[in-house]
Design a protein that fits this description.
With 346 residues, the chain is an alpha/beta fold. The protein has one domain. Helix content is 15%, strand content 26%. The relative contact order is 0.17. This is GerMN domain-containing protein.
């Protein structure tokens, strides 16, 4: 079941749709090639696969970072028309009352002001976005959300590592409404959905992004949250696991499947893009021995593959990998990041 410090959601209503064939998850890889991706093989009945494939012909799965009803910037994967200009199309779908209007998930809204026109030029890993004057017509409280949404939406693509912004052809060094400073190249390293709870001196900290669960019954989804950890933390992977175990802030609407007594028995081992984690038996939570929550696993893999160089996660308990997820998936092999995040409710 999903729980954290009194926040409990019935397990029976959380039937996971997050499994890919093999050891992947149904949801999103941080990077996607600009060319339309290959069809994803999903663990559905054959007839459902055929019907789904027919309905999604000439489309490309794209992550749009939209705002949910609680103000979080959240990836939602939609099937957009296939095009060579996928970066520009993705941002066009972030415009209020634009093409996304007919396909917005319940409770979500677009982030760019209505009527905003834009162009995107990609060169040497940098996407330069030029907005029309309408870009300035946003609410002050949405300023950070706009920066995060544009940055994370564009950096899902393989050939985009960072973003520059322009307004009517002039480089933006700060946002036009509240004046939030804009770094020369915006990237995911800056974070998203900042949680500064208990942070006293931000100058002696560094960001780490973890994934919790938001939404409500019938429409749960993963939410990236950036925490600040001490610069003295040398192992970023261990620090990320620690933040996952801490769980979301009590003031948030988010939940987690990690119990507070989960611990790593050994330092994380990284080799050739794979990280191996050895947990104590408390990682089983309320499940029987050798069974781990799929939601816990999803959050763990999404979190750790945000770390540079990490492509897959191997999970052990007391040094053994003879475990499976509560969805019946054998976890003897490493788990890869899903190709797209939040492809449907669970």
């Amino acid at each position: 079941m999903l729980k954290h410090k009194g926040k409990i959601l019935g397990y029976t209503i959380l039937t996971s749709a997050m499994l890919l064939s093999g050891c992947g998850l149904l949801g999103g890889e941080t990077k996607q090639k600009i060319d339309p991706p290959k069809t994803i093989s999903v663990a559905d009945p054959k007839e459902s696969k055929k019907a789904a494939a027919k309905n999604t012909e000439n489309t490309v799965k794209t992550e749009l970072y939209l705002i949910d009803k609680n103000g979080y910037v959240v990836p939602q994967t939609l099937n957009l028309p296939a095009t060579k200009s996928v970066a520009k199309q993705a941002l066009d779908y972030l415009v209020v009352n634009g093409p996304v209007a007919e396909s917005l998930p319940n409770g979500f809204k677009a982030v760019l002001p209505e009527g905003t026109d834009l162009s995107v030029d990609v060169a040497d890993g940098v996407a330069t976005v030029n907005f029309s004057k309408e870009f300035k017509n946003y609410q002050p409280e949405d300023e950070q959300r706009i920066l995060q949404s544009v940055t994370w939406t564009l950096t899902q693509f393989d050939n985009i590592n960072s973003v520059k912004l322009k307004l009517n052809g002039h480089p933006l060094t700060q946002m036009p409404v509240k004046g939030t400073p804009i770094s020369e190249n915006l990237s995911r390293a800056a974070g998203i959905n900042f949680d500064l709870t208990d942070v006293v001196d931000i100058t002696n900290t560094k960001p780490v992004t973890v994934y919790f669960i938001g939404g409500e019954e019938g429409s749960y989804y993963y939410v990236p949250v950036t925490r600040r950890v001490s610069n003295s933390e040398k192992d970023n992977i261990a620090a990320a696991v620690t933040e996952l175990v801490k769980g979301p802030s009590e003031k948030s609407n988010l939940v987690s499947d990690f119990m507070s007594d989960v611990k790593l028995l050994d330092p994380p081992k990284v080799e050739d893009g794979k990280v191996t984690l050895n947990f104590n038996k408390n990682v089983y939570g309320s499940f029987e021995e050798k069974v781990i929550s799929q939601h816990l696993l999803d959050a763990l893999v999404l979190t750790l593959t945000e770390q540079k160089g990490i492509e897959k996660v191997a999970v052990q308990v007391n040094g053994k990998a003879e475990i499976k997820s509560d969805q019946g998936k054998n976890l003897s092999e490493p788990v890869t990041r899903p190709e797209k995040v939040n492809t449907g409710s669970f």
